[in-house]
Amino acid sequence: MNRLDSCLAEAAERFGTPSYVYLTDAIETRIAEIESTLGRWFSLSYAMKCNPNPGLLEWLAKRVEYVDVSSIGEFRLARQAGWGPAQASFTGPGKRDAEIAEAIDGDVGELVVESVHEAIAANRVAGEAGKIQNILIRIAPSSVPKGFGDHMAGRPSPFGIDIEDAAEQLPQILALPNLSVVGLHIYSGTQCLKPDAICENYRIFMSVFRELCEAYDITPQKLVFGSGLGIPYHAGDTPLDLTDVASVIGPELDDFRSEDRFAKTQLILELGRYLVGEAGYFLTSVVTIKDSRGTKIGICDGGMNNHLPASGHFGMVIHRNYQMHRVGGGEADEKINLVGPLCTSIDRLASGVMLPHLSEGDIVAVHASGAYGITASPIYFISHPAPKEVLVEGGQLTDVSRKFELAR
Q1: Based on the domain organization, do 249 and 299 belong to the same domain?
Q2: Do 259 and 117 sit in the same domain of this protein?
Q3: pLDDT tens digit string along 16-58?
Q4: Which 3-state string (H, E, C) describes 191-243?
Q5: CA–CA separation, 193 and 45 (whole Å)
Q6: DSSP string covering 125-169
Q7: How far is CA 174 from CA 140, 163, 181, in A?
Q8: Cis peptide before 18 (omega within 30 of 0)
């Protein structure tokens, strides 16, 4: 049994299944890769929404300079994990007044303002608190290159101010006396594996930043580049090579930074999935094997309720199997459907996946499960126990499970 499978087998034996396992060595390697290729231009911000596990957050807070939160709950978690409030930016199109008030009172680094309405609310709250609140204005460009997953620009979107409306809306925000515009924020597309598309997206960002900063005489302290960097989920996916991205966009970033307006600007690369996604594995045990009308079905103890993305119900139009393997290895010579324990036909983990022969008690590891796993899943559906979460650091396995209100 190889080193990875030994670790996964130990996790399953000690903590049970279904469970998530997060390997910090893999994240450490990914951070080093990002810094060696893009660190010349960018500081890193962890998009906490992808995995807010408290144990993982504590580990990341010592290694990633900034954190992006999308709720006041995430802001609290980030602070508890070790990030200072000034290291946090707060995104989200539907911030409530109470959330804005707590963030401002808690000295959040920047509110990422996504509408004039939100800016007016933040201005009122800051004024009542006797503060000047730093903000980033989120902009939605008019296009996103082909090759990205979820698009948050170039179509109707709740996120940010449409670039077409900037001339009307930015002056209104800039005029608010209790807000200080310290920069701009763009996150317009996710999950891209094409270096050329990523480079083109960053060109769009720089063009928008130049246009707006010149038009409104903004000398930004920070500009946030929503990374959009993807990971290989499925067989046949080609992993992204950051050296290809850096070699093409690097000279253009140099030119951008050479302009007087941006010479002292901090460029922030906001990313989550690319940082932790491939470092996570979802473990589920085979409860029983069934032959049904010529199809072999493995019924597992974890399914859609634990891992909605792997089931194909998290933005996937056509279901494609995540990469997975049987812990302990073996030749993949058997086609099988894998389903979870739920009383619904949409609870599936894989359709026609090739794996070694599976028997009752075998453990299947679903790859690329470190992001958008447990907290993106309907864990309350049908009231099965929540999966365990295990952090592996330096060969040491620690139970970092969150407390969900379900019987365990």
Answers
A1: no
A2: yes
A3: 999 999 999 999 999 999 999 999 999 999 999 999 999 999 9
A4: CECCHHHHHHHHHHHHHHHHHHHHHCCCCCCEEEEECCECCCCCCCCCCCCHH
A5: 20
A6: HHHHHT--EEEEEEEE-S---TT-SSB-SSS--SSSEEGGGHHHH
A7: 17, 16, 7
A8: yes
Locate tokens 């401002």: which residue? 104
Radius of gyration of the chain (CA): 22
> In this structure, what token pair is assigned to residue 133?
């609140």
CA–CA separation, 302 and 32 (whole Å): 33
Give the DSSP H or E segment for 184.
strand 179-186
- Percent of the chain clearing pLDDT 90 (strictly above): 91
Domain boundary among 214, 242, 271: 271
Joined tokens for residue 301: 């103890």
Instruction: Tabulate helix, strand, coil % of the chain (nearest 5).
Output: 35, 25, 40
Helix (H, G, I), strand (E, B) or coil at 282: strand
Residue positions counted in the chain? 408
Could you say which DSSP state residue 49 is in?
G
Query: CA 230 to CA 197: how far, in whole Å?
Result: 11
How far apart are the C-alpha atoms of 250 and 356, rounded to whole Å? 44
The CA distance from 242 to 221, in Å, is 26
61-86 in b/e form (b: 16+ CB < 10 A) is beebebbbbbbbebbebbbebebeee
Compute the C-alpha angle 61/67/69, nearest 5°: 125
Q: How many separate domains does the chain show?
A: 2
Does residue 5 belong to any structural domain of this protein? no
Query: Residue 402's pLDDT is what?
Result: 87
267 forms beta bridges with 42, 223
380 occurs within a structural domain: yes
Q: Which domain holds residue 324?
A: 278-399
Contact call for residues 400 and 390 (beta carbons, < 8 A): yes
Query: Are 84 and 66 spatial neighbours (Cβ–Cβ below 8 Å)?
Result: no
Tokens in use for 245?
Answer: 């991205």
**Distance between CA 374 and CA 367 in Å, rounded?**
14
Identify whether 53 is part of a domain.
no
Residue 68 within a domain:
no
Within this chain, do residues 214 and 266 fall inside the same structural domain, yes or no?
Answer: yes
Q: Report d(CA 7, CA 97) in Å as an integer.
A: 46
Residue pointed to by tokens 């790859």? 367
Give me the residues of the chain with pLDDT under 70, please.
315-318, 405-408
Residues 181 and 284 grouped into a single domain:
no
